[in-house]
Amino acid sequence: MQEVMKNSELQPAMPACWNEATKPHKFCPGCGHGIILKALGEAIDELELKDKVVFGCDIGCSLLAWDFFAVDSVQTHHGRTTPVITGMKRANPDIVGVAYMGDGGGYAIGSQHLFNAAVRNERITIILCNNCNYGMTGGQMAPTTLPGMKTETTPYGRDVEQTGYPTKGPEMVAAVAPEGAYVARGTVSNPRQMKAYLKKALENQMAGNGISFVECLSGCPTNWRTNAKQTWEFIERDMAQYFKLGELRTPQSEEG
Ligand SMILES: Cc1ncc(C[n+]2csc(CCOP(=O)(O)OP(=O)(O)O)c2C)c(N)n1
Ligand code: SF4
């Protein structure tokens, strides 16, 4: 029988809050979801939140993370992770509620939940993986598909005259959330910065300030049909040009 190694024996070490029995994980090789969840795991470890976090994932490739962490987890209907985690947080304000989803879940079918959670300044943390397409269902156009980008449903490239321009989620949340919100956009191509944003988002919830929302630019090489070089070029050049990186709202910047 294969011997299972402990987290501490693996180099580089897995975050302690990961569920080592479910590794290697189920995402495709080169997928960004694993990088986001590693940054999240390290943030949870560093803030010593393992026993407080309730992790919710959506339908879409994020659901492959339903057993990713050794924390209480819930897998919800498509686009419904935000209201499920909102309910848990309201029922038990001592938890740290994390809602994890894709751009389809957050900006299409679940957009009303994201918008209204922001308006109500729910004390939860929402993390959204933006990979410019519907990954799990085979690469259809998503609200975030870039102008001219080819997908299964836009074989000639996204025509913005017909479908509008890509959704800028953090800009929308930053515009409607009341004081106390934390909003940022990071990228898997800069995991250190992304982790810093995720950490601040968790801290903002712990401080009871308001909603925290972090969009993470990510890659889907399977549906983009890209090799490693093309995948990283697309994230760093094309995506980051349209979706500007950085912090859009911090409670500190509102002081004074
Ligand atoms: C109510 C409902 N509508 C549609 C679907 C089909 N569906 C499953 S996953 C998915 C796309 C998910 O894409 P996204 O949220 O961007 O996440 P990704 O897979 O790219 O990480 C869709 C449309 C569903 N499961 N339930
Ligand atoms: S289909 Fe795309 S988003 Fe889903 S696991 Fe594979 S690479 Fe990741």
Automatic annotation (TrEMBL):
> Any one Gene Ontology biological process term?
cellular respiration
Q: Which UniProt keywords apply?
A: Oxidoreductase
> What molecular function does GO assign, one term?
thiamine pyrophosphate binding
Q: Where is the Thiamine pyrophosphate enzyme TPP-binding domain?
A: 70-216
| Keyword Glycoprotein listed | no
Q: List the InterPro entries.
A: 2-oxoacid:Fd_oxidoreductase, THDP-binding, TPP_enzyme_TPP-bd
Lineage, top-rank taxon, reads Bacteria
Q: Which Pfam families is this protein grouped with?
A: TPP_enzyme_C (PF02775)
This protein's name: Thiamine pyrophosphate protein domain protein TPP-binding protein
Q: Which organism is it from?
A: Acetonema longum DSM 6540
